[in-house]
Amino acid sequence: MSEMDAHDVILVKKLVEGDEKAFTTIYEKYWFQLYRKAGQKLQSDALAKEMVQEIFTNLWIKRSGLHIHCSLDAYLYSALKYTILDYFKSLKVRDKYVTLVRNTLTNYDNVTLDKINSSELEEKIRIAVNTLPERCRLIFDLSRQEQYSMKEIAKRLDISPKTVENQLSKARKILKYHLKEYVPFLLVFLKYIGF
Length: 195
Prior knowledge:
- The protein is mainly α.
- It is 75% helix and 0% strand.
- The protein contains ten helices and no strands.
- It has helices spanning 6-16, 20-42, 45-61, 72-107, 110-115, 118-130, 134-144, 150-157, 161-178, 190-193.
- Helix 7 (134-144) packs across helix 9.
- The longest helix is centred in the middle third of the chain and has 36 residues, at 72-107.
């Protein structure tokens, strides 16, 4: 592993101390290189941006405990590599789940499948969402319908991101309870209800 150049040593030291200017300098120096590499691996600009953003977010969050024993660029490329590997692992897990649900669906007899159509399921989901407490439903709708991030919801409602996380968790539990008999059919609606 290569050694860190003197300028990066100073930047990392300042970053560990919480210096925002040092973080911005590191970000501006390495963002595009990491983005280009991620884009080559992922074949998606949006996903590449998201991954690189995650790396820099983690760099800032974990700055006080940062110990880099190689060059800064090697550290960041390594972080990118593992972030991409984790992404592909999660895709494999999701694909296994999709296959399992599809296999479960094919095991249901046609009579059961005929009884449940998409409009009925959509209605059940709408009813289940309406059972959520008012604040919980508002947060759920902002997250799932409006596609707001937890931070955006927290800022918009002037609450902590942890409160948003707790309310979304509560919503998922309530919806899973109300829709448990439809679980095999929810694959189509996973994005909508956030399973």
